[in-house]
Amino acid sequence: MTLESWIDWIAGYGDWFYLVTFVWTFFEGETFVIFAGIAASPAFGILRVDYLIACAWIGSFCGDNLYFFLGRRYGHRLIARFPRLKPGTDVALDLLHKYNTGFILAFRFIYVVRNFSSFACGMSNLFWPRFMVLNFIAAGVWSCTFAGAGYLLGEVFTKAAWPIKIVVLCLFATLIALAIRAHRANKRRVAEAAARESAESKAPENSPA
Predict the structure, then answer these.
(1) Are 144 and 31 in contact (CB under 8 A)?
(2) Domain total in the chain
Protein backbone atom coordinates (compact mmCIF):
# COMPACT_ATOMS: atom_id res chain seq x y z
CA MET A 1 0.00 0.00 0.00
CA THR A 2 1.45 3.36 -1.06
CA LEU A 3 1.36 6.42 1.13
CA GLU A 4 -1.26 8.02 -1.13
CA SER A 5 -3.57 5.01 -0.96
CA TRP A 6 -3.08 4.86 2.81
CA ILE A 7 -4.04 8.53 3.13
CA ASP A 8 -7.10 7.92 0.94
CA TRP A 9 -8.06 4.97 3.11
CA ILE A 10 -7.86 7.10 6.25
CA ALA A 11 -9.81 9.94 4.63
CA GLY A 12 -12.57 7.48 3.66
CA TYR A 13 -13.36 6.85 7.32
CA GLY A 14 -13.67 10.51 8.27
CA ASP A 15 -14.16 11.00 12.01
CA TRP A 16 -14.84 7.29 12.40
CA PHE A 17 -11.11 6.76 11.99
CA TYR A 18 -10.60 7.79 15.61
CA LEU A 19 -12.71 4.79 16.63
CA VAL A 20 -10.65 2.61 14.27
CA THR A 21 -7.54 3.93 16.02
CA PHE A 22 -8.91 3.00 19.44
CA VAL A 23 -9.77 -0.55 18.31
CA TRP A 24 -6.49 -1.07 16.44
CA THR A 25 -4.28 0.13 19.29
CA PHE A 26 -6.31 -1.94 21.74
CA PHE A 27 -4.34 -4.84 20.31
CA GLU A 28 -1.17 -3.31 18.83
CA GLY A 29 -0.07 -0.95 16.11
CA GLU A 30 2.83 1.51 16.20
CA THR A 31 3.13 1.34 12.38
CA PHE A 32 -0.57 2.17 12.16
CA VAL A 33 -0.12 5.16 14.49
CA ILE A 34 2.92 6.42 12.55
CA PHE A 35 0.98 6.50 9.27
CA ALA A 36 -2.00 8.06 11.04
CA GLY A 37 0.40 10.69 12.38
CA ILE A 38 1.49 11.45 8.82
CA ALA A 39 -2.17 11.98 7.90
CA ALA A 40 -2.49 14.35 10.87
CA SER A 41 0.45 16.51 9.79
CA PRO A 42 -0.30 19.93 8.26
CA ALA A 43 0.85 18.52 4.92
CA PHE A 44 -2.37 16.46 4.77
CA GLY A 45 -4.53 17.74 7.64
CA ILE A 46 -6.93 14.81 7.52
CA LEU A 47 -6.81 14.10 11.26
CA ARG A 48 -6.31 16.10 14.43
CA VAL A 49 -3.11 14.96 16.07
CA ASP A 50 -4.44 15.56 19.60
CA TYR A 51 -7.50 13.37 18.94
CA LEU A 52 -5.26 10.73 17.36
CA ILE A 53 -2.93 10.65 20.36
CA ALA A 54 -5.85 10.49 22.79
CA CYS A 55 -7.50 7.56 20.99
CA ALA A 56 -4.23 5.64 20.63
CA TRP A 57 -3.42 6.35 24.28
CA ILE A 58 -6.76 5.12 25.61
CA GLY A 59 -6.92 2.15 23.23
CA SER A 60 -3.46 0.92 24.18
CA PHE A 61 -4.12 1.45 27.89
CA CYS A 62 -7.44 -0.44 27.79
CA GLY A 63 -5.93 -3.33 25.83
CA ASP A 64 -3.09 -3.76 28.30
CA ASN A 65 -5.47 -3.78 31.24
CA LEU A 66 -7.67 -6.40 29.61
CA TYR A 67 -4.62 -8.64 29.23
CA PHE A 68 -3.66 -7.88 32.83
CA PHE A 69 -7.14 -8.99 33.94
CA LEU A 70 -6.87 -12.20 31.91
CA GLY A 71 -3.50 -12.93 33.50
CA ARG A 72 -4.75 -12.17 37.00
CA ARG A 73 -7.98 -14.16 36.68
CA TYR A 74 -7.20 -16.97 34.24
CA GLY A 75 -3.42 -16.92 33.77
CA HIS A 76 -2.46 -20.37 35.06
CA ARG A 77 -5.48 -22.03 33.44
CA LEU A 78 -4.73 -20.41 30.08
CA ILE A 79 -1.08 -21.48 30.20
CA ALA A 80 -2.12 -25.03 31.11
CA ARG A 81 -4.44 -25.06 28.10
CA PHE A 82 -2.06 -23.22 25.75
CA PRO A 83 1.50 -24.20 26.79
CA ARG A 84 3.04 -22.13 23.98
CA LEU A 85 2.22 -19.03 26.08
CA LYS A 86 4.53 -20.12 28.88
CA PRO A 87 8.01 -19.32 27.46
CA GLY A 88 7.12 -15.75 26.54
CA THR A 89 5.28 -15.24 29.82
CA ASP A 90 8.27 -16.57 31.77
CA VAL A 91 10.63 -14.17 29.98
CA ALA A 92 8.30 -11.25 30.72
CA LEU A 93 8.02 -12.27 34.39
CA ASP A 94 11.79 -12.53 34.64
CA LEU A 95 12.19 -9.00 33.23
CA LEU A 96 9.46 -7.74 35.57
CA HIS A 97 11.25 -9.19 38.60
CA LYS A 98 14.58 -7.71 37.48
CA TYR A 99 13.47 -4.22 36.47
CA ASN A 100 9.96 -3.82 37.91
CA THR A 101 8.90 -0.19 37.32
CA GLY A 102 11.31 0.24 34.41
CA PHE A 103 9.90 -2.82 32.70
CA ILE A 104 6.28 -1.69 33.12
CA LEU A 105 7.14 1.68 31.60
CA ALA A 106 9.15 0.22 28.72
CA PHE A 107 7.68 -3.17 27.77
CA ARG A 108 5.49 -1.84 24.94
CA PHE A 109 8.71 -0.85 23.18
CA ILE A 110 10.23 -4.36 23.58
CA TYR A 111 9.27 -6.41 20.53
CA VAL A 112 8.04 -10.00 21.00
CA VAL A 113 8.14 -9.80 24.81
CA ARG A 114 5.52 -7.04 24.86
CA ASN A 115 2.92 -9.50 23.55
CA PHE A 116 3.12 -11.35 26.86
CA SER A 117 3.93 -8.48 29.22
CA SER A 118 0.55 -7.26 30.48
CA PHE A 119 -0.64 -10.86 30.82
CA ALA A 120 2.51 -11.71 32.78
CA CYS A 121 2.09 -8.66 35.03
CA GLY A 122 -1.40 -9.90 35.85
CA MET A 123 0.01 -13.26 36.89
CA SER A 124 2.50 -11.61 39.25
CA ASN A 125 1.75 -10.16 42.68
CA LEU A 126 1.81 -6.64 41.20
CA PHE A 127 -0.79 -4.30 42.69
CA TRP A 128 -3.27 -3.58 39.87
CA PRO A 129 -3.75 0.15 40.61
CA ARG A 130 0.03 0.59 40.50
CA PHE A 131 0.15 -1.17 37.14
CA MET A 132 -2.67 1.06 35.87
CA VAL A 133 -0.87 4.28 36.82
CA LEU A 134 2.47 3.23 35.31
CA ASN A 135 0.81 1.75 32.24
CA PHE A 136 -1.22 4.91 31.69
CA ILE A 137 2.02 6.92 31.67
CA ALA A 138 3.68 4.42 29.32
CA ALA A 139 0.70 4.40 26.96
CA GLY A 140 0.87 8.19 26.76
CA VAL A 141 4.60 8.13 25.96
CA TRP A 142 4.02 5.43 23.35
CA SER A 143 1.16 7.23 21.59
CA CYS A 144 2.94 10.60 21.62
CA THR A 145 6.16 9.01 20.33
CA PHE A 146 4.70 7.23 17.33
CA ALA A 147 2.00 9.74 16.43
CA GLY A 148 4.59 12.50 16.81
CA ALA A 149 7.07 10.60 14.63
CA GLY A 150 4.47 10.29 11.88
CA TYR A 151 3.52 13.94 12.24
CA LEU A 152 7.15 15.04 11.85
CA LEU A 153 7.72 12.68 8.92
CA GLY A 154 4.73 14.17 7.14
CA GLU A 155 6.19 17.62 7.59
CA VAL A 156 9.72 16.67 6.58
CA PHE A 157 8.85 14.80 3.41
CA THR A 158 6.54 17.49 2.09
CA LYS A 159 8.38 20.68 3.07
CA ALA A 160 12.04 19.98 3.88
CA ALA A 161 14.94 20.23 1.45
CA TRP A 162 16.39 17.02 0.03
CA PRO A 163 19.49 16.92 2.29
CA ILE A 164 17.25 17.02 5.36
CA LYS A 165 15.00 14.34 3.87
CA ILE A 166 18.02 12.08 3.33
CA VAL A 167 19.24 12.60 6.91
CA VAL A 168 15.79 11.82 8.34
CA LEU A 169 15.45 8.79 6.08
CA CYS A 170 18.83 7.45 7.24
CA LEU A 171 17.88 8.02 10.87
CA PHE A 172 14.56 6.27 10.34
CA ALA A 173 16.31 3.33 8.60
CA THR A 174 18.73 3.07 11.54
CA LEU A 175 15.86 2.91 14.01
CA ILE A 176 14.17 0.22 11.94
CA ALA A 177 17.41 -1.79 11.86
CA LEU A 178 17.75 -1.52 15.63
CA ALA A 179 14.12 -2.58 16.06
CA ILE A 180 14.69 -5.63 13.85
CA ARG A 181 17.79 -6.53 15.84
CA ALA A 182 15.87 -6.20 19.11
CA HIS A 183 13.02 -8.26 17.67
CA ARG A 184 15.40 -11.08 16.76
CA ALA A 185 17.14 -10.96 20.15
CA ASN A 186 13.87 -11.16 22.05
CA LYS A 187 12.55 -13.88 19.76
CA ARG A 188 15.72 -15.86 20.47
CA ARG A 189 15.24 -15.30 24.20
CA VAL A 190 11.69 -16.65 24.04
CA ALA A 191 12.88 -19.64 21.97
CA GLU A 192 15.60 -20.40 24.53
CA ALA A 193 13.03 -20.22 27.32
CA ALA A 194 10.83 -22.65 25.38
CA ALA A 195 13.78 -25.03 24.92
CA ARG A 196 14.58 -24.94 28.65
CA GLU A 197 10.94 -25.57 29.48
CA SER A 198 10.86 -28.53 27.11
CA ALA A 199 14.09 -29.97 28.58
CA GLU A 200 12.82 -29.60 32.14
CA SER A 201 9.52 -31.30 31.30
CA LYS A 202 11.36 -34.27 29.74
CA ALA A 203 13.89 -34.63 32.58
CA PRO A 204 11.59 -36.56 34.99
CA GLU A 205 10.66 -38.96 32.18
CA ASN A 206 14.31 -39.78 31.48
CA SER A 207 15.37 -40.09 35.14
CA PRO A 208 15.96 -43.64 36.47
CA ALA A 209 13.13 -45.18 38.48
Answers:
(1) no
(2) 1
